[in-house]
Specification:
Blueprint lengths: L1 H23 L3 E10 L3 H9 L4 H4 L3 E10 L2 E8 L5 E9 L3 E6 L6 E13 L2 E12 L2 H11 L3 H10 L5 E2 L4
Antiparallel strand pairs: 1-7, 1-8, 2-3, 3-4, 4-5, 5-6, 6-7
Helix pairs in contact: 1-4
Length: about 170
């Protein structure tokens, strides 16, 4: 029985340590990842702004629905297999060049905005750079986001999904 108590104490100590470290981390973070695809800026812009087609190329989504505009801004809701549905608002667009969206929900343990920059990279090639200006409010989630998943995990998943539609170009650096 003594070992059970030691195990429980160790588990509690680990959770407390994770929470303390998470509490010390900043709430806000910024991550940027980019990839180049064999696609025109118009093709990529259409892909990343057509909410109705999201489930055809983003496998993690179970649903995506267009919502009524709010203050002149487009809105949509995404559902995944894990977690609650998330409502997004499109804050700014420059056709074929820029898309800025943010999480509209205020009751989640995270929030933030994503900036999608499209830059021509050659004949029929475009670089898609995504910058996440994220916020993680829960200290345990903050620890997991920073040390387990990585702040750029969602961006990389998204860019991989884009790669199912357009061939990724290897860029020599």
């Amino acid at each position: 029985m003594r070992y059970v108590y030691i195990g429980i104490a160790a588990l509690v100590a680990l959770v407390v340590l994770i929470a303390v470290v998470g509490w010390m981390l900043p709430v806000r973070h910024r991550s940027t990842v980019e990839r180049t695809y064999k696609a025109t800026p118009a093709d990529l812009f259409t892909l990343i702004t057509d909410v109705g087609s999201f489930t055809s190329w983003r496998r993690e989504l179970q649903g995506a629905e267009v919502l009524p505009q709010e203050n002149g801004h487009a809105r949509w809701r995404e559902r995944t297999g894990s977690g609650p549905p998330i409502t997004y608002v499109l804050e700014r667009t420059i056709p074929e060049r820029l898309v800025v969206g943010r999480i509209a929900d205020t009751n989640l343990p995270f929030g933030g905005s994503w900036t999608y920059e499209l830059t021509p990279a050659g004949e029929s090639e475009t670089t898609l750079r995504i910058t996440e200006d994220g916020e993680v409010y829960n200290p345990i989630f903050r620890f997991v986001s920073r040390f387990v998943m990585g702040h750029d995990a969602t961006i990389k998943q998204y860019l991989s999904a884009v790669g199912t539609r357009f061939t990724e170009v290897t860029v020599n650096q």
